[in-house]
Amino acid sequence: xxQQVTQGIKISVKTRYDGSFIKHREVKHAFVYxxxxxxxxxxxxxxxxxxxxxxxxxxxxxxxxGEGVIGAKPILMPGEKHSYTSGCLLDSPMGAMSGHYNLVxxxxxxxxxxxxxxxxxxxxxxxx
Length: 128
Fold this sequence. Notes:
single chain, mainly beta, Immunoglobulin-like, 4-stranded antiparallel β-sheet, about 70% strand, elongated
């Protein structure tokens, strides 16, 4: 598990390899990541959007942006957590992801970024 705290918001990430399959005549490697966002600050915040940097050992890096996470824009009061699970497909059995969330602080009404720490994606067989 990797963890990082930015401006009182703790991000924890766990990953696992979910197997490979063929899609459009190409082998794809499926990875699952579970993220917990914990508000350790004294203010209520809301997650507005996300930006992912996805690195695949065989391809150019991709940037994925979008609103919320898994269709939600969670509001977190001090001490609250929000967890979700998602995934990505890579052409290679190895890669990595990082990025940031855009949040708004309800007390100051200011937007701020929270870093998502770099986490590796690797199939167990790729490390041999």
